[in-house]
Amino acid sequence: MTYSRISGTGSHLPRKVVLNKEFEKTLDTSDQWIRERTGISERRISSDDEPTTFLAEHACRKAIEAAEVDPGEIDLFILGTTTPDLIFPSSACLIQKKLGLPDCGAMDVNAACSGFMYALSIADKFIRCGDVKKSAGLRRGKPDPDGQLEQAGNCRTVR
C-alpha cells in the first residue's frame, strides 16, 4: 500500500519582533498575564518587504533541503494561507516559479488555521491514489498587516 510521510520541515520568521511589553502600551494587559495564559513572550510581524511568498519560499527551500529531495521531483505544491500576495495567480504558483519546481500542480488552500492540515490531507490523498509521488505542503499565516495591535479584537496569538 502506498502511504505518505513528512520527510522534511522548514521555517522562516519575519525580522520584526514584537514583545508582550508592547501590548501594555495600548491594551489593558501585561507581559505576565499573556505568558501565564499562552506561554507566548514574543511575536513576529511581517514587514512590507516580507510578503507571504517571500517567507514561504525560504521555509520551503529549507524543507526541501531537509528532505534531501530534488525540486524537480515534486509533483504537487499546496500552500495553506489566508494572506496570499495576490488573489490571482495563487501564491502557490508564484512560489512554484521561485523554487524552480517543474510544471506540477500548485494551489492555495484558504482555510485559516486549519489550512496546513487541509494541505497535508490533500497531498496525502494525491499520493495514496498514485497521482503524485512527492508533494510539498506549506502553511503561511500572517497577522494583521497594518500592525493594528492597539485594539483587543485585532490581536492574534499563534503558538
Description:
The protein has 159 residues and is of the alpha/beta class. It has a domain at 69-141: Thiolase/Chalcone synthase (Peroxisomal Thiolase, Chain A, domain 1, 3-Layer(aba) Sandwich). It contains five helices and five strands. The protein has helices at residues 21-24, 31-38, 52-67, 91-99, 115-128; strands at residues 16-19, 42-45, 76-81, 105-109, 135-140. Strands 4-3-5 form a three-stranded parallel β-sheet, sandwiched between helices. Helix 4 links the parallel strand 3 (76-81) and strand 4 (105-109). Helix 3 (52-67) crosses helix 4 (91-99). The longest helix is centred in the middle third of the chain and has 16 residues, at 52-67. The protein is elongated and about 55 Å long. It starts with 15 loop residues before the first strand and ends in a 19-residue tail after the last strand. Residues 144-159 have low confidence and may be disordered.
Shape: elongated
Low-confidence stretches: 144-159
* Helix fraction by DSSP (H/I, runs of at least 4): 25-40%
Query: What is the succession of H and E elements?
Result: EHHEHEHEHE
Tell me the number of helical segments per DSSP (H or I, 4 or more residues long). Answer: 5
Q: What structural class do helix, strand and pairing data support? A: alpha/beta
**Computed Rg:** 18 Å
Main β-sheet, spatial strand arrangement: 4-3-5
**CATH architectural group of the domain at 69-141:** 3-Layer(aba) Sandwich
Instruction: Quote the beta fraction.
Output: 15-25%
| Mean pLDDT over the residues | 79
CATH topology assignment of the domain at 69-141: Peroxisomal Thiolase, Chain A, domain 1
CATH class of the domain at 69-141: Alpha Beta
The biggest beta sheet is recorded as: 3 strands, parallel
Overall number of strands = 5
- How far apart, in Å, are the first and last alpha carbons? 35 Å
**Considering the protein shown, what is the CATH homologous superfamily of the domain at 69-141?**
Thiolase/Chalcone synthase
